[in-house]
Amino acid sequence: MVTDNTAYIGTSNWSGDYFINTAGVGLVMQQSQNDSSSVHQSIREQLCDVFQRDWHSPYAHPLLSYNGP
After folding, report:
1. What integer is the mean pLDDT of 17-23?
2. Exposed/middle/buried for residue 21 (C-beta within 10 Å: 0-12, 13-18, 19+)
3. Which of 32, 42, 66, 69 is most exposed, with minimal Cβ within 10 Å?
4. Mind telling me which residue stretches traverse the membrane in this protein (predicted)?
């Protein structure tokens, strides 16, 4: 998950019982303004770019375009 100033990477599948009944690993990253230079993107920006690249990939298709059972 990426917000306006923080990134979270974890092993969760985002269902309520997953947080209660299983263990996982999570990493929260928040980079201060001083940590990022104008030359390099912040970790949050890099993760956002990776998500956008994959989301808009020619290999990504809406689930509704597939006929299910």
Report:
1. 76
2. exposed
3. 69
4. none
